[in-house]
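Sample intake — Dephospho-CoA kinase
Collected from: Nocardioides renjunii
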Amino acid sequence: MTVRVGLTGGIASGKSTVSSILAELGAVVIDADLIAREVVARGTPGLAALVEEFGTGLLTADGDLDRPAMGALVFSDDDARRRLEAIIHPLVHRRSAELEADADPGALVVHDIPLLAEVGRAGTFDAVVVVDAPAELQVSRMVEHRGWSREEAESRIAAQASREDRLAIATHVVVNTGSLDDLRQQVEDVHADLLARA
């Protein structure tokens, strides 16, 4: 039996690292962020729908989506963010379902979804893994590793679900405050538990 797992975590929580470890352990990882990029690539109906909704000002000179411009718009305007999500989420959901259907029976299928708590789909999975880190640690990671200002980092965290909201949907919590070895051990333990459900 296929075990369907939702994986989520706040920005700079270490979710991508956990996702990579799960893939190394043999899980089929379906990355919503990668799919979200694919569905609005140049020439796609998704990009055409964004241009129709928001105008050509969100395109680069080459005709690609200008991600920084789009990000600046939607993270400061809740209405714009909802309009963006209304276009992208159904496209991502459809592509994710196609990829899941291609997985081997009995596979551990992990849907890496940054906004899982926000979109209210936690109940559609057999298990939900939340990668957790304190907000202060998230901020310091963004400042140190991404070169963002403290204000940018805090506003990005504020635009996401609260830490409490994410933890409320978790069946498994991976706490990413220590070393990579510690993180890997936690992920291996969670992976073993998830496989036991199959």
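Post-analysis note: The beta strands are 3-9, 28-31, 108-112, 127-132, 172-175.
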